[in-house]
Every structure is written in structure tokens, then in C-alpha cells.
Write a structure and sequence with these properties.
This protein has 247 residues and is α+β, with helices and mostly antiparallel strands. The chain has helices at 80-84, 86-102, 110-124, 129-143, 193-204, 207-213, 221-235, 240-245, and strands at residues 3-16, 20-27, 31-37, 56-62, 68-77, 166-170, 175-176, 189-192. A 5-stranded mixed barrel has the order 1-2-3-5-4. Strands 7-6-8 form a 3-stranded antiparallel beta sheet. The relative contact order is 0.12.
Length: 247
């Protein structure tokens, strides 16, 4: 039985058989994996809290015929504060569900891994959970290659010289649309252009900067609504309910 090592975040944990747990983990090296942690439901389990949701571990995994088996786990970060804070937990569960639903099994995605890890660290540092959700939504769209087009009409390509305070935005077209094209694009909506510009700033900032300056950004609920609808369009799944109820 061959062994391999990964650095991974627990996206989901499910009871399995009488005493085991089925872990869905997002690893930096091998993408999303399903792993059986034998005996993890026993109080005396050697794995302890390493099988909890959001836990970040070094894992030694044995390759199985149908399911891989967790052999050893060493904690990097428990993210216990995330689980202890109901608001942070609910939003973090939403992030984990988006990632879990988006990823194919064993598809490596290091950029998305770093985004999820960075967001968990923001939660751990006490950053407002709703701000973290907005950061995730903006960076998720960016690393997956569908960040909104804001410098030209996303339908015809015409440059926008001076955008108004509110501008037509199309989820399907992938960004802003000019007045002429608004009649050709399905249900464009008016959104705040300054908020869209702010999303570019957040997209480009590192997590340390976001942690130190998050209070300067104020209420970003409208920006989050824009990106939730935008991501839902591109994934073909309505993630707004996921955000409302977490897992």
C-alpha cells in the first residue's frame, strides 16, 4: 500500500461506518480528496481534533482500492476560533461549500487553496465574517478566470471613457455593458461603479493588508450581492442560499 503526504484543509467531515469519519479535504499538492479516518469517532482516537471541519493539517495518506485511508495527521492550524464563533462558522461553511462544489476530485488548484487558507486566517484574526465573505467572492472569481470586465463593454468591447455613478452590469456577459448593448444583453442591472472599482482593489491586495485595513472599507453588503449573483451565473448554481444558511 503506497503512502503520500499532503498539506490539506478539511472541507467536510461525515460519519462513516460505526466509528470512522469520511473527510473531504482540499490539499495543496493533489487537490480535493476523500479520505477515511478510521476510528476517528472514538473519544480515544489518535486523530483528535484534526478531523474537525476547517482544520489545517499535514496528512500522511495510504492509497486504497476505493477510498484512501488516513494514516497520520499533524496539526498546522486548528482554526478553533472559527468553529467557536457562530457567525464566522456559518460564513466559513459557505466558503467551504463553494470550494467543495466547484472542485473536481484530485484537481490541483493552488491559487484557490491559498485564497481559502487566507480567508480562514482572516476569520482567526477576528476580521468581520461578512467582509471575509466578500474578499473570498472577489478573489474566487479572479483565480477562476472570470473577474468582471470593468474598462470596456463586456458585450461589444467598446472602451468606457467615463463611467457614471451607476452602470449597467451583466452577469452573463461578464462585466459592464454600454447603453447601446444593454438592449442586446439579457437583464443587465444597475450597480454602483465605485463599488466595482473597489472590488479590483480588494482583488489585488494581499491578506495581510486586508487584515490590517478591513475597517476602512465599510459596509460591503451590496458588493457581495453583486458577486454572489455573478458567481452563481458562472457556476450555474445559486450560491445565495448557501451563504444564508452555511452548510
Amino acid at each position: 500500500m503506497s503512502l503520500f503526504k499532503v498539506e490539506a484543509i478539511n472541507l467536510k467531515t461525515t460519519p462513516f461506518a460505526e466509528q470512522d469519519k469520511l473527510l473531504t479535504v482540499f490539499s495543496k499538492e493533489k487537490g480535493k480528496l476523500s479520505v477515511i479516518a478510521k476510528g476517528a469517532r472514538r473519544p480515544s482516537s489518535k486523530f483528535g481534533g484534526r478531523c474537525e471541519i476547517f482544520a489545517y493539517n499535514h496528512l500522511l495518506i495510504a492509497k486504497g482500492k476505493s477510498l484512501d485511508i488516513l494514516s497520520q495527521a499533524e496539526t498546522i492550524e486548528t482554526f478553533q476560533k472559527v468553529r467557536d464563533n457562530p457567525s464566522a462558522f456559518m460564513v466559513a461553511a459557505y466558503l467551504a461549500r463553494v470550494v467543495n462544489s466547484f472542485l473536481e476530485e484530485a484537481a490541483v488548484n493552488r491559487s484557490l487553496f491559498e485564497v481559502l487558507l487566507g480567508c480562514l486566517k482572516l476569520f482567526q484574526a477576528g476580521v468581520d465574517p461578512q467582509f471575509v465573505a466578500t474578499v473570498f467572492e472577489i478573489k474566487f472569481a479572479a483565480v477562476e478566470g472570470f473577474t468582471p470586465i470593468l474598462d470596456r463593454c463586456s458585450h461589444c468591447g467598446r472602451k468606457v471613457k467615463k463611467a457614471p455613478q451607476n452602470i449597467r452590469f451583466s452577469d452573463a456577459a461578464g462585466g459592464i455593458v454600454c447603453e447601446k448593448c444593454s438592449f442586446s444583453v439579457y437583464t443587465p442591472r444597475l450597480v454602483s461603479f465605485p463599488l466595482l472599482v473597489l472590488s479590483q482593489k480588494i482583488r489585488d491586495q494581499d491578506f495581510e493588508t486586508l487584515r490590517n485595513n478591513y475597517k476602512q472599507h465599510g459596509d460591503l453588503s451590496q458588493l457581495s450581492e453583486i458577486f454572489v449573483a455573478y458567481i452563481s451565473e458562472h457556476l450555474g448554481k445559486d450560491i445565495s442560499e448557501w451563504k444564508r444558511f452555511g452548510i
